[in-house]
Amino acid sequence: MKSRSGRTAAAAPASGRDVQPLMTTLNEFSRCVAQYDPHALPVSAAQSIVRQWAAPVTAVERVPLRDALDRVLAADIISPIDVPSHDNSAMDGYAFNCAALAANESTVDLTIVGKALAGHPFAGHVGTTQCVRVMTGACMPADCDTVVPQELVERSADSTSIRFAANAVRAGANRRRAGEDLARGHAALRAGRIMRASDLGLLASLGIGEVNVRRRLRVAFFSTGDELRSLGEPLDQGSVYDSNRYTLFAMLRRLNMDTLDLGVVRDEPAALEAALRSAAASADVVLTSGGVSVGEADFTKQLLQTFGDVAFWSLAMRPGRPLAFGRVWSGDHPGLGLPALFFGLPGNPVAVMVTFYQIVREALLLMSGATPQALPLLRAASRQIIRKRAGRTEYQRGVAEQVLGAPGQWHVTPTGSQSSGVLSSMSEANCFIVLGHDEADIAEGEHVDIMLFDGLI
Hints:
Elements (H helix, E strand, L loop, with lengths): L25 H5 L10 E2 H11 L6 E5 L12 E2 L9 E2 L3 E4 L10 E10 L13 E5 L11 E4 L4 E2 L5 E5 L9 E2 L10 E3 L7 H9 L4 E5 L3 E7 L3 E2 L10 E2 L2 H11 L3 E8 L3 H14 L2 E5 L10 H8 E11 L3 E8 L9 E7 L3 H19 L10 E5 L10 E10 L7 E5 L9 H5 L2 E5 L11 E6 L5
Parallel strand pairs: 1-19, 6-7, 14-17, 14-18, 15-16, 18-21, 19-23, 22-24
Antiparallel strand pairs: 2-13, 3-12, 4-11, 5-7, 5-8, 6-10, 9-10, 19-20, 20-21, 22-26, 23-24, 23-25, 25-26
Helix pairs in contact: 2-7, 4-7
């Protein structure tokens, strides 16, 4: 059954992979994944499981080009024209026939017979001892195939002829051929591309004013905890302001998601159940923060065992160990109503951001129909000892700087306390220090992987 939004009543693994039976549970599927450990799942295994269940939305919308920024292309864009549409000059200079270079003379003398400007071509005949003054982008005259830059020529006193050294240019120099950038009938942009500003300009140059894009993924999110207060509410003793919804909103906004903020939900089974079912009925993905650890008031795990399906609850990761991934349905039992993928993020603010970028982000892009690129890593020398326990992946906050006088070389310093509750460390940092599952303590001067925040956060 498919809803008007393009969602289906049962989710299957992404296309291109073996499709599981309709009611195969994520838990059953996950147990077949290498390194599966429900108590301390390696990050790479968790990413593999999530990736296989992040099925893209099917609904497609046609939007004006100005509204296509950050949207995901639903189909290849085929160029209807050649770009450039005609042979043209790559610079200001003089167009001539390359036969003039074959006269075995040390200099070439040519008579100027006309001018060609961008949008104003020269239509006359050009002989082998003649040339045409051309500007950048101007059509190449029919009898010309080479352009000599204006700074390489000497003009006669009456400006009717030019002279330049025969070895100043080669035959065909400074000529851009029709279709050189993009040929008619070739793909200009591929399906799955997240549209950037340059892409809008490219499509405009092809005369394309509308494009087909995948509908925006809808993500519902809420925080759990009796101690949380929303902005504008007074703080009681023992209460704190909820920051997680604002970081989640901002991270989702950066990915151009359609967001649904369900606020703060109390640690009460009935309230949590109502929020989860409402979110599943309204969204493709449900994100929660808090309520997935082993505390006495963490009811989310119990509820999902009733009307959900969970692949894993705990990762070999720091910060972010208590992270749940599964599905939740809007009906009374798994398989009834509309499903949504579920990510139960930790409650600590830094852990929310780390798990979002390392686990959730790629899934959201895949479900949006995008072809996500791996987040780039750089190598940097640590300026101090970093304590690390083997057997888990760690994402520490750091400040990275390029080494003065050594382009391409970096060094990095941890921001101090790596507590997952110190949100200010994320504002202070400009990168994650990525310490692999099998790595142990890092010595001063030893190289580590870093993931820059620029363009990410």
